[in-house]
Amino acid sequence: MCANVELWLIRHGETEWSLNRKHTSRTDVGLTERGRQRAEELRDYLAGTKFAAVFSSPMKRALETCAIAGFGDVAKVDEDLREWDYGIHEGRTTEEIRAEMPGWSVWENEIVGGEAIEKVGVRADGVIERALKAGSGGRVALFAHAHILRVLAARWVGLNARDGRLFALRTGSVSVLGWERETRVIESWNRGFEG
């Protein structure tokens, strides 16, 4: 057990699709101007913070946030940090989906043509395991997306992957997962930079 490793979860900055609340997984959209500004604020916030390892989703929005924040040259791409595959719901809002399927929830319904929540949980567990090994008693930064990071937080504290629904996460935010003695805890959550 690496009870002194902290995981810093960093959600990418705003994109046109996140701004419009569209489910975005495989579609490789970049940051908006506001998203780039948020990444600059992340750079300022993280200045001087030392990370034993930095991992990023392979998607443009995460890599761009990571680079602007000052960690692009040291980040390793981790395929398991990709966002949940939304299948036929890619590019659609919850409201649009509910017009056809009342009461639909990404957390509760089957994702046709996409990824089961249990598989997302397995991916999150793998990220946690690799981060703990790479952390060597320090901090590990994970640049990724809302749902995968929410699932990762749930798995960190021993909850079911589906319980990621309990953790809201805005764009360009920082959250820290750590320890209280030997117990995994959420030290801080959803730290934003709105003025």
UniProtKB/TrEMBL annotation:
GO terms for biological process: regulation of phosphorelay signal transduction system. SMART domains: PGAM (SM00855). Substrate binds at R61. CDD domains: HP_PGM_like. It holds the Pfam family His_Phos_1. GO terms for molecular function: protein histidine phosphatase activity. SUPFAM superfamilies: Phosphoglycerate mutase-like (SSF53254). It comes from the Bacteria. This is Phosphoglycerate mutase. It comes from Edaphobacter dinghuensis.
